[in-house]
Amino acid sequence: MRTKRRSTHFPFLRFACPIAILAASAFLASCASLPPRSADDAPPRFAGPIPQPKPPKPVSLTVQTIDAFLGWAQTVPVSQTHVITQQIVPAAGNDQIVDALAEQLLKFPVTDISRHLILLSTLGEMRNARAIQPLIRFISYTGPMFPPLPEAAQKESTFISVLDYRAVLQARAAEMLAYIGGLGLPATLDIASKHPTREVRIAAIDAYLFNNSDSEDAKAALRSVVPPSERALIGLPRRTKNRDQKAFDERVRAFYEQHPEEIPPVPDFKHTGQLRGVPTPREH
Amino acid sequence: MILVRSILISGLLLVALPAAACIDGTNTQETALQAQYGCWRDLYLWVWQAYALTDDSWNPAGISDACNVALPFAKVVNSAFLINYGLTDNYIPQWHSTEDYSSSSRAADNRFHGPFYQRFILYNGRSEADSETGRFAARDRTNLHCPLFDVGNPSNDVANRASVMVHESWHHWQQKHGFNTSHMSGPIGSCTVSGPACDWYYFHGSGAFDFGQLDRYDINPQHLLFHSPYQVAVEFDADVAEEAQPWVPVSVTQQARAIGNSRLSSQFRNAVGYRIGNPRPF
Description:
The structure holds two protein chains of two kinds. Chain A is mainly alpha-helical.
């Protein structure tokens, strides 16, 4: 009678077969997960935004409707922002609404940055002087503004960086402070001079000029207070939708001609790469 | 008996793999943009393939719930929608065309870069994304991290996520075209951020690159025409801010402007000679 001989010299071979099957399956799965090597297909055709069966109606701005107003305003198409300002105009002189908006502005942590940007825009559009002090407080705030990072991120070295979103919001607040005008303008000048964050100072410089019609007097006022290293940034051209294209390009070129130290060096080559061709300009 | 025991062991190994998840959830801006196209099957299938979201890391990240913008997969689809449909392609003033941004950000082997794929990486740090280029015997890849998807995180934003996708694709362009794929470490010069997040800005006039030529460059110092990764991201931000389709929600364009200006002021070693948009409320 024959008996099965078991392998006693290599006991791990009992598990080699299923492990091999598992490894092969993982390999095949990884191959399946790679995109097929097909032509670089164009995206599907988009016929336009789908009609909303019940488009949201404008929300009036009151103390009671602030949340609903900000939620609605975020959804408004960029081509129809006039419907937002139409709701703000009747509320502009209402100090209670300003106070309610300011309370939300200074409520931390900020959990929705796009909502906060719309909130700031609303305060700016109201042009109510009562918003000046809350905006200054917001711009000066040095505490944590966003939800605490996970523990792993807090221990992470500074080798990994992320955009300073507090500066993003404070820069926008500086713009709105200048837009309100009145005592907001000298406050903006102070921010351009003394705020600890460069992005906020540069936003304040630009906003101060914009709200003084980019006048030579405004430039002189800025030159007298702005750090010497940032005086070159007074009067930067703005890239806007309806700009004079040639004038914009010429002004930026003039900036680099006046400040050749800001012209970057030729980039480093790592190895011989592929050169498809030099760019050709658009025909105007 | 041996076969049954082997199957059981294999099964346990599979069950033991942990699921990955960020802090799921959505916000008004995200849903407002998705409302423009709804649950569009052709789009998410195309994005899945064109952006190579095919790694199994997407299995617990919403690939089977492709229209749920509370989850990472649909959020990537949403940002891909912005890249591929959100601009007017205004020929004269727009920095670059939709086709340029689209082709750069996609994963296919094309004039911009070699093939790569995109993974979802559960990561509790601060970095939004990273790209691995020049991998030995393996396909290059981009890793998208939880800050881009965590509800409440300021990086969790449609416009920012789209510009990050464009930025990361540019590292693959650098690899294909023989350029250093690393950032400079800051703070340095006008770049105020800490860590490897600084680039040079190579300013060019709006018409210097015809539509369809973003992939090209000229390193003759007399007429230097070049892009760094943060520069491509900022130019995309500027185009979303000022040249968006009329139906794009204002919360998207405002965010793009705010982030673009902040990057212009803080992430380039040389001072950049312009600002995006007017500092008006609306």
